[in-house]
Amino acid sequence: SYGKMWGTPGAAVRSIRPYQSSEQYLYAMKEDLAEWLKELYDLDIEVGTFVEVLETGAVLCSHANNVTHVAGEFARAFPGVACHLRLPAAGVACNLTAQPGTFQARDNVSNFIQWCRKEMDIKDVLMFETEDLVLRKNEKNFVLCLLELARRAARFGMRAPTLVQMEEEIEEELRQELDLLPADTPLPQPPRKPRDLHNLDQMVQHLVSRCTCPIQFPMIKISEGKYRVGDSDTLIFVRILREHVMVRVGGGWDTLEHYLDKHDPCRCTS
Fold this sequence. Notes:
By secondary structure, this protein is of the alpha+beta class. Helices cover 48% and strands 10% of the residues. Belongs to the GAS2 family.
């Protein structure tokens, strides 16, 4: 059926894209986590080799031990704040020479999973199973778990991926709007790079313009990176992550393209 696809309009465009919109947000998250791990540990890792580099569990266990180490430093520096946070106390046993697919690799990954549950209190809904990574059964669960771990470790001073930094900025914006007091943890925040939002609106309008409804699906800019969507009063936050336009939804992220595929009437194919 692949040959036939070339006959359909837009097929050439579609085939160049390495993923469907439903997989795009996963690709964007993997890209972000890969860049973050690369910077953090000087690793040779990118979105294409993401699973290969991590599947032996060696990097994951080393990361877990580093997170525990950072937590210890934090507890010594800010005992007042630390007593209100749940900090990891124990590290994890690790076989650094484990080969992919072996018992040792499974053991590493399994140790990492137990550590996430016990020391970081990550809930089951955001956890993955050994086979999800070792046999690549469910990359999504694995990626969501790593992101959640990064989110929690950022609370006690670990450097965070861009997505987590953007989440914090959005939380801050919401707090200011509601006139709430700043978050109760007075952490020394690393200086934030101001986000480049000036061509964000163009990117948003470009994606919205693909709508073919008689009356275009509306996305109205309220302020930089914030839009009112559809006929509802729903407000969404939008950010650029490399070449992806990301939307903050619930506790997670989606790409704007996939979000529109689900909400714009002409794109919600049954």
